[in-house]
Amino acid sequence: MELASMNPVQLRPFKIEDYNEVHALWASTEGIGLSESDAREAVAAFLERNPGLSLAAVSEGRIVGAVLCGHDGRRGYLHHLAVCPDWRRRGVGRAIVRQCLERLKTAGIPKCNLFLYADNAAGEVFWRRLGWTVRADLHLVQRPTSSADANEKSRCKSC
Ligand SMILES: CC(C)(COP(=O)(O)OP(=O)(O)OC[C@H]1O[C@@H](n2cnc3c(N)ncnc32)[C@H](O)[C@@H]1OP(=O)(O)O)[C@@H](O)C(=O)NCCC(=O)NCCS
Q: Domain holding 38: CATH number?
């Protein structure tokens, strides 16, 4: 997908071969919290479970933006939307999100959720600008699946 003639960014499916480049982007991006769920094997499993939904934005062979997108048959989820600082405010984030929503809609998924750190003010402006609602009536309720970890306070700042 061509965003605009003066903005040669292509959106294409996120492939596991992109992992190192995308992980480096996530690791250097504010507002993205990484965990064991972002290890190569875990990302590979996510991509396999949700074929063709996650996207990479590519310019001249370099990944300038990426997102993980999937669904559980009921709701869609976006994780780790990130655009390189030098490519921001050029419509890349908006284009990525639009394509993800189109793909989720085609898959029969009526709503999409995402996790946003409460202190990510710029991120909140972005999502609100795109028509998303921040649900103040909900809390994220979470615990590890491992009972060994159940009584430990989570040290990992990740959703
Ligand atoms: C949030 C992020 C993905 C936006 O990507 P982007 O490509 O710059 O976004 P777009 O250019 O498509 O912006 C769409 C609109 O959102 C709003 N917006 C985006 N970033 C904004 C900012 N920092 N401050 C205020 N408004 C902003 C603007 O209204 C913008 O439209 P405009 O430029 O025509 O005014 C990018 O800033 C980023 O990677 N941030 C760090 C990671 C993060 O917070 N991710 C989301 C957490 S889930």
A: 3.40.630.30
